[in-house]
Amino acid sequence: MKPIAEAEFALRRERLLEHVRAHGLTGGVLFDDRYVQYFTGFGFLATERPVAFAVNVAGEMAVFVPEFEVDRVRAETAFERVESYPEYPGLEHPMRIFARVLADMGIAAAGADQDGYPGILGYAGPALSEVTGVAVVGVAPFVESLMVRKSPAEVELIRESARWCEAAHRLLQQYSVPGATEAEASLHAGHEATLAMLAAIGHTGQQSSSDGVSAGYRGQIGQRSSWAHAVAHDIEFKAGDLLVTETSAPIWGYHAELERGMVIGPPSDEMRRLFDHTVAAQQVAFDAFRPGATCADIDDAVLRYFEANDLLGNWRQHVGHGIGLRNHEAPFLDIGDHTPIEPGMVLTIEPGVYASDLGGFRHSDTVVVIEDGIEILTDYPRDLESLTIPA
Amino acid sequence: MKPIAEAEFALRRERLLEHVRAHGLTGGVLFDDRYVQYFTGFGFLATERPVAFAVNVAGEMAVFVPEFEVDRVRAETAFERVESYPEYPGLEHPMRIFARVLADMGIAAAGADQDGYPGILGYAGPALSEVTGVAVVGVAPFVESLMVRKSPAEVELIRESARWCEAAHRLLQQYSVPGATEAEASLHAGHEATLAMLAAIGHTGQQSSSDGVSAGYRGQIGQRSSWAHAVAHDIEFKAGDLLVTETSAPIWGYHAELERGMVIGPPSDEMRRLFDHTVAAQQVAFDAFRPGATCADIDDAVLRYFEANDLLGNWRQHVGHGIGLRNHEAPFLDIGDHTPIEPGMVLTIEPGVYASDLGGFRHSDTVVVIEDGIEILTDYPRDLESLTIPA
Questions:
Q1: Which residues pair with A320 in a beta bridge?
Q2: Do B358 and B237 share a domain, yes or no?
Q3: B207-243 pLDDT, tens digit each
Q4: Is B232 close to A219, i.e. CB distance below 8 A?
Q5: B348 CB-contact burial (10 Å; exposed 0-12 / middle 13-18 / buried 19+)
Q6: Which CATH number does the domain housing residue A333 bear?
Q7: Partner-chain contact A356 B71, CB within 8 Å
Q8: In contact, A230 and A250? CB cutoff 8 Å
């Protein structure tokens, strides 16, 4: 699997520059690690040491990093101009040094994703507008709007991610047996799936040596499966448990999402009823992708299904969210998001049906919007028989 | 291992309230997930769905969460007042709903960690000051200053984290043999160490079922070990490799850090020279913790060691950083940080010695400052013999 090609990064930067020029600005500045990756492919560990990307209206680029990153940046990226500072906080604040780089590039009034480096991990420093003396125009909403529609190359990376989510989920299902714990099942599944992925397609942009494929639970086991964002408790699986899974397998940074509701042992009638509604509600969402629909329309269709089936007491969350370089991103399949659905959008479809006293089910699939509907990128059984684990 | 006791959270909140009252404000508002955890113990998955904590000058508290978190918050926390919104973005923006909660609590002019929920994962929304109509006073620097000195209970959690970093590192060293890959070694080590930790001390606040202990590499293998923040490449170990490791084992959210420089096969004279300087530079830092020293003094002492030994060309990074609920935090052992060293600070001590053409070494240990120096919390060999892996 190849990463995004340099030509595509150049096109993305050109669109950013068009936006910057149209607003009468002299350049663009990005601090967010995902935005830098989106426009350049440069991946780095975001810490309290500022990293920034700058491009002026002539298209000249610079990356700004701590000095210890310079050798790596020269070896692993195509940046011609690599600017650095000795350390953070250092004798002179890195933002002051960065201001001189911007001045040298002719960047005064800048379109920036934020007015300075974000305050992560104890970082503190002056705003960009303070060190340049010029107010900043925010470009984050524009960048987010670019990221919403995925290119064919991006869809291929997400499709590959989906394959490894599927592989990991098969292992997770196999290891989630009564007497095993959520930690045992997920560690086994992630460990095996990651090594299988590396053997099959090699390194695909992982930061740490154990990064790769994961499949597991975030506490949604037994009655806790009714908590859409539970947390782990090292729970031991037992017959009668409802389960909601999660998976992840970033490929050159791009994510698919695959989640399944499952049950251990023969489902009760009530479990079967909730499960059938989960599958049906997801189908309602799939079918709601018609030309001219908005994100809100998809969520509204599912809400009407809940209402028509007397399930509003079992409703907890909207239908889904955008996904790409981040595991959640805009737009949101929510009655409050009126973004028109457009080809190239990649979204999760994951209505859940929850009962506080019993537990809940949620199937999440990742889809790409095409001209006349959607293509489902995650290929994994959705039926109760396939998702029943022998007790 | 018990989490931080409720009485300690109450004391922390009281210090926040003293600060808020001293500034003539009517309450405190926190959006950052680690800050919420610091003052309340409440752990949650921070996403595009806003979560906030509010406390008024009378000490009345509320947590503000998406509706699907309410059941869990009632079951797993002691919050009496749990306020919620249906979904994000929703028909009414959650920040507008939150503004009514604040008004009901009598909070107008607030001390807040930031002016609204941060723009993570596609979140967008109005500033806190916009929805309340009152300017916000930033309290993040004050909160950071509180977090710098750890309580005895915090130090015990970090000490326990150190034990599991040590256990994982022993496994990592055992699995890092020629012919194995960085992924294989780190996945094996993390898998085994996590299950051993859960068996020994049980659940300690992990969010996902596979969270626990990790030990591995971030690309610092062979010549790449000279890149202080490299990234993984699924590298196969071979004789002659220099290695720099990393470990992590959060216990109720608290981190220690243990890293070691290692070598596969008999070290060359040059490797031995760099290694000996790494150990000596770390000892210089240990010895520099004297009453009255500042963070800058520690870094300066090590810089003078580099200078005296003609090693400035091998210098890449400052001595270390604070550590606690985040794996990096203020203060920084850097010539630019003039924070006085005080008992209760927990810091990493990790000068590295790097040669671009050969590789680098870095030992990172976690220490707590005591009245007359430091106590080293991470107990792992530092000598070359112990850290040489048979080729």
A1: A333
A2: yes
A3: 999 999 999 999 999 999 999 988 999 999 999 999 9
A4: no
A5: buried
A6: 3.90.230.10
A7: yes
A8: no
Chain length of chain B: 391
Domain C-terminal end among B147, B176, B206? B147
Interface A–B counts its CB contacts (< 8 A) at: 239
pLDDT tens digit sequence for B241-286: 999 999 999 999 999 999 999 999 999 999 999 999 999 999 999 9
On whether both B196 and B322 belong to a single domain, the answer is yes
This prediction's pTM: 0.97
**Which residues from A are below 8 Å from B84, CB to CB?**
none
Mean pLDDT by runs of 10 across the 391 residues of chain B is: 95 98 97 97 94 97 97 94 98 98 97 94 96 96 97 98 98 98 98 98 96 96 94 96 98 98 98 98 97 96 98 98 97 98 98 97 98 97 98 93
User: Which of A130, A147, A164 is at the close of a domain?
Assistant: A147
Q: Do B209 and A231 touch (CB under 8 A)?
A: no
Pseudo-torsion of CA B34, B35, B36, B37, nearest 10°? 50
Q: Tally the domains of chain A.
A: 2
Closest chain B residue to A186 measured between Cα atoms? B210
Residues of A in contact with B247 (CB under 8 A): none
**A341 and A353 fall within a common domain:** yes
CATH number at residue B138: 3.40.350.10
Residue B244: Cβ within 10 Å count? 29
> To the nearest whole angstrom, how far is the Cα of A12 from the nearest Cα of chain B?
19
For B205, B248, B263, B274, B354, the CA distances from B268, given in Å and listed in that order, are 44, 30, 10, 10, 15
- Mutation test of the interface with chain B: which of A73, A181, A210, choosing the one with the most B Cβ atoms within 10 A? A210
Domain range for A80: 6-147
Same domain membership, residue A166 and residue A71: no
